[in-house]
Design a protein that fits this description.
Layout lengths: L6 H20 L18 H10 L2 H8 L2 E3 L16 H20 L3 H4 L2 E6 L2 E7 H26 L19 H13 L8
Length: 195
């Protein structure tokens, strides 16, 4: 019998890995620069840091609702966190990850195969299976914004963490990456890594 990893297990492991990366970046965000932005067309530093901290909450909506309208009264719940301290950012990340973890733990792969819609003012702008939305609109999108955040860190002379590989400030590969790979391998016996 073939042993296959469940989507829920895959996403829970991905959530844990992404939480580590987000925490490492958010720990370096300097306080007092929430309104700063590198260009007039860029989002403010505080908004970007808030987005990185709270994006895992989107998973809750994608699991527990059939759609989300960005112009609905409920959208007010997804406004950026107004924060002043890194501790507030890190607490927001912890709450978001915990809520996403709960939602993923309580759902099924069958449910993740069902469609989910992103709507703006009644107009469907995207419709895909929930697993695709979680992969693209949460995890890929989060990596994109976290990458932006590391550029902001560099421009404000804060150290840039080693996330997926060495940074100019941390010359080694991140130890947490190896732990994350080991955790995935422990739960997926069908995967092998060559030495």
């Amino acid at each position: 019998m073939e042993n296959k990893m469940k989507l829920t297990e895959f996403f829970l492991a991905q959530l844990d890995r992404e939480a580590v990366h987000s925490r490492l970046a958010l720990q370096r965000v300097p306080e007092g620069y929430n309104d700063w932005k590198p260009h007039d067309k860029s989002m403010p530093f505080g908004h970007l840091a808030s987005l990185v901290a709270t994006m895992p909450l989107w998973i809750v909506s994608m699991v527990n609702q059939n759609q989300f309208d960005m112009k609905s009264p409920e959208a007010e719940n997804f406004k950026p966190l107004e924060w002043r301290t890194r501790a507030e950012l890190l607490n927001a990340l912890d709450r978001a990850v915990s809520a996403a973890h709960d939602a993923l733990s309580q759902t099924t792969d069958e449910h993740l195969l069902t469609p989910w819609k992103l709507i703006v003012g009644g107009q469907i702008v995207s419709e895909s299976p929930r697993y695709g939305m979680i992969a693209d609109s949460v995890f890929s999108h989060l990596a994109h914004h976290r990458g932006q955040l590391t550029v902001y860190l560099r421009l404000k002379a804060a150290s840039v963490p080693s996330l997926y590989g060495p940074s100019a400030d941390e010359k080694s590969f991140p130890a947490h990456g190896h732990d994350a790979i080991k955790a995935v391998l422990a739960t997926t016996p069908e995967l092998e890594v060559s030495a």
